[in-house]
Amino acid sequence: MHFKFSLIIMKLLVYFIIVIFSVPVFGQKVDIDGPAKFITEFNFRQLTGGVMLIKARFNSIPDSFNFILDTGSGSISLDSATVEKYAIPHEPSGRYMYGIAGVRKVDYSKNNSLAFPGLKIDSLDFYINDYEILTNVYGIKVDGIIGYSFLSRYIVKVDFDSLKIRVYSPGAIKYPPHGLLLHPALRGLPIVPLIIKDARTIDANYYFDTGAGLCFLISKQFKNDSAVLLKRRKPVSTKVQGLGGKAQMHLTIIKKVRIGKYKFKKVPTYILDDEFNLFSRPSLAGLIGNDILRRFNLIINYPEKEIHLLPNSHFHDHFDYSYTGMSLYNFNGIIQADDIIEGSPADKAGLKNGDIIIGINNDFSNDLEKYKNQLQKTGETITLLIRRDNVPIILSMRVRRIR
Prior knowledge:
The structure is a single chain. This protein is mainly beta. It has two domains: 320 residues, Acid Proteases (Cathepsin D, subunit A, domain 1), CATH 2.40.70; 80 residues, PDZ domain (Pdz3 Domain). The protein has eight helices and 30 strands. The strands form six sheets. Strands 4-5-10-6-9-8 form a six-stranded mixed β-barrel. A six-stranded antiparallel beta sheet has the order 2-12-11-22-23-13, with no helix packed on it. A six-stranded mixed β-barrel has the order 15-16-21-17-20-19. Strand 8 and strand 9 form a beta hairpin.
């Protein structure tokens, strides 16, 4: 089941912007002679914004870990709480992790194995990072992120219709006769050219990021330099939490985003003040995220530097234009409101940071995803039952539509 991206879960952005910029881990030399051979197939769970959650076994630990499959990660990593819980050995790496609000050194755990159904991968070095925020955003434990270190060794097919991932050995592969074959620049992270149109039509390069649970993002610097947005656009404010603290972002709409021959109209777009130059301006303008990419079935072929896109049954799904100006989190089974933006619908309704959500529109399921879906009803007035200082309060909020 697909859950659309909502402004309520903007802290999701912590992990696609926190990218490990280091020397890519190539592992063993891949053999690309002969045809690609099928290795295995397993299911994935689709989270908000199309983000893919897969299960794997780490070393000899009997429990399965939850990993996010992310082309926007230049390596592979584990959550620090998971490392502590299972007493996984680790040491300083001498490398840095860059985020929207800071930079810090990271440890890593060397020479580990990862096992999927029908596939075991050895000699993997995992970086260690704190992914508590992802667990709170999704209401499910996130133990790590799988990126380049895995994707560089195989051909990976992602089917968003069946929610299955198929893994093949490197080699000659026959792509579907229709669709689009991309030839991304691959610097640990894939980079693709896109055309966007609003006040102007501009061709620029973007990260191809399956770990980003949103449609599209551009840097504030690119927006200012290119004057791409129509002057009548009035982006709304939101907050995100990333490495080092919280940061302000803005949300608007771009008239058209084009990837190859495929066009998307009125695309929700986030604007990041790229203070730490994550996009190496002017080399990159931003990223395309998985709330667009999930509309295609993907063949990710890093050994040949190719990505194939084929429209699937979600291609014409509606975008989410709702705006509440707050985030919802699941803290150990308690759903709370946070990051209330001054002047936003949530602020005008009287919501405060730390309010506990008991129910929304007569839905008292305590299901984070269901509550998010309730808050996507643009133009409607919704009813919230909250608890503040152990006192129940009923509030009404009208959900705005971004423009």
